[in-house]
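Q: Hi! First time doing this. I have a protein sequence and I read that you can turn it into a structure. Is that right? Here it is:
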Amino acid sequence: MAKRYYWLKFQMDFFQSPVIKKLRRIAGGDTYTIIYLKLQLMSIPDGGVIKLTGIEDDPADEIALMIDEATDNVAVTLAFLQKHKLLEVIDDTFFLPEAAENIGNESESARRMRKLRKLKETQEKDALEEINKNNIDKNRNFGLLDEGASHCDENVTLEERREEKEKEKERDRRVEEEFRGEEFKQTETISKIFTQSFGYEPDKSFRTSIRKMLEQKSTYFTEICNAIEDAAKSEYEINKAEPYVLAIIKNKREERLYEEEWLDAYEVQRRRKERGLL
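A: Yes, that's right. Below is the predicted 3D structure, encoded as structure tokens:
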């Protein structure tokens, strides 16, 4: 599986948010804020979702164990986040809408190409400036260029180069928009299916999570549609369907990974038997 890099965008006005200000003013509020940030980081791989394993009877105990914080502090933080709509809980699944909106990712190959492109641009710029400098020095030596004209020609050459770079960026942007066009269409289709199933439009964080899944793998489209259908058929009373659908998707992924691991182990055993090693 190709390696991916994830990040969480930290909003400049995070500490100016009225909810965060209120959290920090509580006794021990700075600790609770750190716990909230740790929860967001935990949720990055699954687009804002944290799936508990049930290793502890109380969710607060399990979270405290995972992030190395006191259980009492975690319990207070969870209660506060739920009260102010920063955390949604369905069974053993936690959903952090703010984290879901601010998670980004890229593949290892895309990261490598971005670095190479930046390095290439820097090298080309340095080489161009060196050529311009040498040409200007030669023209000065032969008396072919006065001081004012040298600066003018240098600026024209650099301006032409900048214009070419802008055109190249515009071409890249168009290619990216064309590539992402299908993901946008799939996200819109999924939103319509969601609305038809539950009678209201999905929130922005859900659409963001879905789009990020489709960016990773376009074949997730069918899996997401099936999860919406399963959630709509659920016998449980669902107050908010978005985190429930995301939890179904996560559970199915884990089941599939377990099945693949089991099949791999079975194949290893079979080959060992064929070779007489068992």
